[in-house]
Design a protein that fits this description.
The protein has 141 residues and is mainly alpha-helical. The chain is built from 5 helices and no strands. It is globular.
Length: 141
């Protein structure tokens, strides 16, 4: 288990755990969209969303460094598979963005330093935007 899925099972969240689960989930998102692009070619919306995921990872790395938490290795490839179709890639993305939003909502219900809260809000809101784009792309199929 990794990222948002792993965070659901943790009933004793700490700042360190939340930041680790968050970066794991952002690793998953970036890798998921990389796999979609490898499988499908330069396909919208994956080609634009992937750039956001790189920024998300960098924001989290900055927080991990600030709070002296080791940056975890990216193991996301262990948990994902190459999509075989556009529909499958869209479904993977929609599911992942929903899980991501739920994870950040849960994290934001805790008392957090202001900078962490701000980043988690930006990440949640970005995932909401990605979810909308993915759903719209799916509806146009």
């Amino acid at each position: 288990m990794y990222g948002a899925i792993r965070s659901k099972l943790d009933n004793n969240l700490t700042l360190e755990k939340m930041l680790i689960y968050a970066i794991e989930d952002e690793y998953l998102a970036r890798t998921e969209y990389e796999l979609a692009l490898k499988s499908l070619g330069d396909e919208k919306p994956f080609n634009s969303i992937i750039n956001s995921e790189v920024h998300h990872i960098n924001w989290l790395k900055e927080l991990l460094q600030k709070y002296n938490i080791p940056i975890p290795e990216d193991r996301s490839y262990e948990f994902l598979k190459m999509p075989s179709s556009l529909d499958e890639a869209l479904e993977y993305g929609i599911h992942a963005e929903i899980e991501n939003i739920e994870m950040y909502e849960r994290f934001l219900s805790h008392s957090l330093p202001e900078d962490v809260q701000d980043v988690f809000k930006k990440l949640r809101d970005s995932s909401k935007g990605h979810l909308l784009v993915l759903k719209n792309r799916k509806e146009k199929r």
